[in-house]
Every structure is written in C-alpha cells, then in structure tokens.
Amino acid sequence: MQITDVRVRKVAKEGKLKAVVSITMDEEFVVHDIKVIEGEKGLFIAMPSKKALDGEYRDIAHPINSATRERIQTMILEKYQEVMENDDSEEE
To answer: Is the full-model pTM beyond 0.70?
Structure first.
C-alpha cells in the first residue's frame, strides 16, 4: 500500500487542532478527517472517529500496526510542515 496523495486543510482558529487531512492510498481509497494535533510532546495525528453511545470516541479507520501508523504520521506531518512553510513565505 502506497500513500499517493496527502491533502492538508489548515484550521484557522487557535487551539490544539492544527489541520484536517485526507490521504489517498494507491490512488483508489481515501480516508478523510485525520486530525493534526499539537500535543505536549509535539505534533501527532488522530484518526477519524465518532462518538459511541457510551460517550467514548472510537476510530472509524485506523492502521493495524504501529509501523503503518508511523509511516502515515510521518507523511502527513511532512506535508503539514511543507504547507505551513509555503504559507509563511507567501505572507512575506
């Protein structure tokens, strides 16, 4: 499985949520609403989730193993940094 596209939508308001991302895999399958969040130890991703009847949030789609999660997170955060750098240079 290859991630063939990463689309970043920045969040305008202040807060821990920095962006919402969509990824396309093998140009055939897309996952929307992956969140880029600023945590105490830096940026990380949260997979799309929904609130269950018991009030807990459950992932709708997620990687099965930590190596895949790390690969997805690395690609998303690299693209996020690229988008942020481009925005900074356009404002100057």
So the answer is: yes
